[in-house]
Amino acid sequence: MKPFLETMEWLHRHGFIEIFFGIGIFGFLARLVQKGFPSNYDHLHVTVIPGGPVHIPGDPHVPNSMKIILSNAGQTNFYIARAYFRPKFRRWWSLWILRKATKIKIHALSYRIPHKDAFELKFPGNTPSFSNYEAIVPPGHSTGRITWLPLQQPLQQSEIDKRRCGVLYIEYATAGKQGIHVVRL
Fold first, then answer.
1. What gap in Å lies between CA 109 and CA 107, rounded to an integer?
2. Of 61, 63, 91, 135, which sits most exposed with the smallest number of CB within 10 A?
3. CB within 8 A of 31, min separation 6: which ones?
4. What pLDDT tens digit does each residue of the chain (185 aa) get?
5. What pTM was computed for the model?
6. CA-based end-to-end distance of the chain
7. 51 exposure class (CB count in 10 Å sphere: 0-12, 13-18, 19+)
8. What is the C-alpha radius of gyration for the chain, rounded to an integer number of angstroms?
9. Are 166 and 85 in contact (CB under 8 A)?
């Protein structure tokens, strides 16, 4: 125990403990800024329209959905590691701290991510239902990827146009960048 205390005393005497503490504070603040300001990909285009029937595990026929179309206008492949939708949004007058729930009613069997307070979005796989968590969006508008969010009630285009449906989060990677793409829908 004595060598440890002598080492700590030497580190304190020469200011290394303060340097380590400063690096920790700087790292914490950098992570906080990174979370607060998303790193959107400039070439990703998101289109939302009212969708039709969709199949989800546990309910073979859900009549209402929201269709999300992702297209890549860049020159490199866009890899989606995870996508999720939060049916809440922040208002400017609450200093972007509080979230307000939207009018959208998500289907009860949709997979909820409790620690993110969001619903997971999946992409088409080898089965008739949407089963893949990840997808690659190649360059070009005709090669976009589609995902669906099952809803309890029909969604009107007027609600989508108001952009008060919620927030879409896409964790991504490209050839030169990675981060979280955030779009208010």
1. 6
2. 61
3. none
4. 889 999 989 988 998 889 989 999 998 888 777 766 777 888 999 999 998 888 887 777 889 999 999 999 999 999 999 999 999 887 777 666 778 888 899 999 888 999 989 999 999 877 666 778 899 999 987 888 999 999 999 998 998 999 889 999 999 999 878 888 999 89
5. 0.77
6. 58
7. buried
8. 22
9. yes
